[in-house]
Amino acid sequence: MASIKGKTAEKIITSILKERKKQGFSSFSDVVKRVEGLGDKRMVAILDAWNGTF
Q1: Cα(54)–Cα(36) distance, rounded to whole angstroms?
Q2: What is the pTM of this model?
């Protein structure tokens, strides 16, 4: 996941799952705003990894 490993990845995944249970995400900026440990730069890195660009 975009060079995110270990406890950082676990923290982000846990936060995503917790927030998604409360309410679905409406946009990428909503994800960044609601997920602890996920900022703009990290979100862009994840999206770039999904698109196969680095």
Answers
A1: 23
A2: 0.75
Task: For residue 39, give both structure tokens.
Answer: 């900022």
Residue 1: helix, strand or coil by DSSP? coil
11 close to 38: Cβ distance less than 8 angstroms: no
Cα–Cα dist 48/14, whole Å? 21
Per-residue pLDDT of the chain (54 residues; tens, 9 = 90+): 467 788 988 999 999 999 999 999 999 899 999 999 899 988 888 888 888 755
Domain boundaries, the chain: 6-51
Do residues 1 and 9 touch, judged by C-beta distance below 8 A? yes
